[in-house]
Structures are given as C-alpha cells and as structure tokens.
Design a protein that fits this description.
Length: 194
C-alpha cells in the first residue's frame, strides 16, 4: 500500500484501513450476507457517507487492496530496471501477490469469497480491470498505440496466474510452472522479451 505523506492523507488512509478491517472482521464473524453497510459503518464509528467515500460498494470492502494490486502489476512493467527482463519482473510481482493471497489467515477470507456469488463476480471484474491495465502497460512498453490481442492475452494469463497459484498445494511452484507457459506464449507472439 502506498504510504501517504501529509497529515490529512495519513488520516484518510487510517480511516480507510479501519473501515476495511472492521468490515472483514464482521463478515468473517457473522457471514458476508448477514452484515450490512450500516452495521460496518456503526462498528467502525464512521458515517455511511464516509464509508462510501472510501469504498464504492460492499464488495469493495473485502478487496480493499484492489488498487494497490493493479498498480503493482503495472509498475512491474513500467518501473522495472533497464536490464530486468519483462517476464522476470512480472513473475516477481505475481509471486508477491500470491504470497499475500496465500498468507496465513487468508483461507477464511477465500472461503467467504468462494461462497458468495457477489464476491466471486466482483473478483472476476477486478481481475479483468487489472488485466486491461496490464495490457495497456505492455502495449506502451512495446511502443504500441493500443493493446494488441497478444498484450491482452498475456495480461490475462499473468493476472489469472495469481488465482491459479493461490489454489495450488505449492503456490510458489505453481507460479513457476505457469510462467514457463506464459514465457513460451509471449515468445511465440514475436514480441521482444527484454
């Protein structure tokens, strides 16, 4: 998560974090469908309007790091060192995302997500948004005016690697296995790989 610099930004970030942590605790204790927005706001000691100024929907409360994850994927392309190969940078970032998603204590959250059609749908739309942003970064990296089919396909493969790996018995090994295929597919497009 990006560290805010000013007092006001730090206070807003702290409020956002408090709301997200409160929501997740309530959802895990009582069930996602059993807890309403008003209950989350009351428990976090904020107004409902304050909650909505930080989160666009109830589902967004569960995926509090959504924007950070998207930013990290894009920065793996745009912020990598001049000598770091593209696929190595993406592999490194996917490992970090999988490590976060497979961290101790994450299993109850994923069970809650898997049990909720609304959360599964939100997660899918989030992955598509992340893939679109990554495809645009890939296209820009290649000097293209817009994302090609190859850029969009590679971006989806990379984003979906996180979901596939988090479900594996050995998430690290799964990322490595998946990236062998991603690198082969990327090389087959004829795109430069540096």
């Amino acid at each position: 998560m990006t560290v805010p610099t000013g007092r006001r930004e730090r206070k807003k970030a702290a409020t956002r974090q408090k709301i997200a942590e409160t929501a997740l605790r309530l959802f895990l204790e009582h069930g996602y469908d059993a807890v309403g927005i008003r209950e989350v706001a009351a428990e976090a000691d904020v107004a409902v309007t304050t909650l909505f100024s930080h989160f666009a929907s109830k589902e967004a409360l569960v995926f509090e790091r959504d924007a950070d994850f998207e930013r990290c994927l894009v920065e793996a392309v745009t912020g990598r060192g001049p000598d770091e190969p593209l696929m190595a940078a993406l592999r490194r970032e996917v490992h970090a995302l999988v490590e976060h998603c497979a961290a101790p204590g994450a299993a109850p959250v994923w069970h809650m997500i898997d049990a909720s059609p609304a959360l599964r749908q939100y997660e899918e739309s989030m992955r598509l948004r992340h893939a679109d942003a990554l495809a645009a970064a890939l296209a820009d990296d290649l000097g293209l005016a817009r994302a090609t089919t190859a850029c969009r396909a590679m971006a989806r493969f990379v984003v979906d690697a996180r979901a596939l790996a988090r479900e594996a018995d050995d998430p690290r090994a799964a990322v490595e296995e998946i990236f062998v295929m991603i690198e082969a597919a990327w090389a087959a497009t004829g795109a430069r790989t540096d």
